[in-house]
Amino acid sequence: MEPRTKETILDDLKKFSLFSGLNDEQIELIYSKGQLLELQQGDAIVDEGQTDHNFHILLSGVMDIILPKFNYDFERINEVKLGTKKPGDCVGEYSFIDGRPASASVIAEEECQVFMLDRHIFKDLLNVNDGLAKQVYLNMLIMLAGNIRHHDKQSDTFVLL
Fold first, then answer.
1. What pLDDT digit, counting tens, does each position of 106-122 carry?
2. How is the chain split into domains, by residue range?
3. How far apart are CA 60 and CA 43, in angstroms?
């Protein structure tokens, strides 16, 4: 895995749609509140039902979104793969917004690097920076709307089969 410096992480964050419209000072402020995590294949960054709501942005690698066979509450017939996360995608955004337990598990399909923001620290940062909060929440809303449209299209394709 290629080592990341502050500069390479900042460059990545500037490219990602979550931080579109932010200036260098705002990106630097967000960077100062997060940390780099390195995951190996098979590592979980989020477990279904988890109540720790950190916010993650995938910098490199690929992660699978799954409903595991063994849930904290019951057993499924099989594990269900819901999708894939790629660099620039967020992990934990639903729980970040609504405070509810994670609705799925997210597992590293290969070595991954993730920028992690503690939920409380990130929310505090947004609460005291109106311009930053407005842009980040707008970007998050656009991303979530894109996810819904993607799932609608998948459902439509499924119905046609």
1. 999 999 999 999 999 99
2. 6-160
3. 14
CA gap 115, 117 in Å, rounded: 7
DSSP bridge partners of 67: 80
Sort 91 into a burial class: Cβ within 10 Å, 0-12 / 13-18 / 19+: buried
CA distances, 125 to each of 7, 19, 98, 103, 132 (Å): 21, 14, 17, 25, 9
CATH 2.60.120.10 fits 6-160, yes or no: yes
Token duo for residue 133: 């909060």
Residue-wise pLDDT for 29-65, tens only, equals: 999 999 999 999 999 999 888 887 799 999 999 999 9
Structure tokens of 152? Answer: 């609608």
Task: Identify residue 71 by its one-letter amino acid code.
Answer: N
C-alpha to C-alpha distance for 71 and 79, rounded to whole angstroms:
10
Q: Residue 143 corresponds to which tokens in the numbers above?
A: 């991303």
Q: Cα-flanking dihedrals φ and ψ of residue 81, to 5°? A: -90, 120
Instruction: Evaluate whether 85 touches 14 at the Cβ level (below 8 Å).
Output: no
Q: pTM (2 decimals)?
A: 0.85
Which secondary structure element, helix H or strand E, spans residue 24, and what is its range?
helix 24-33
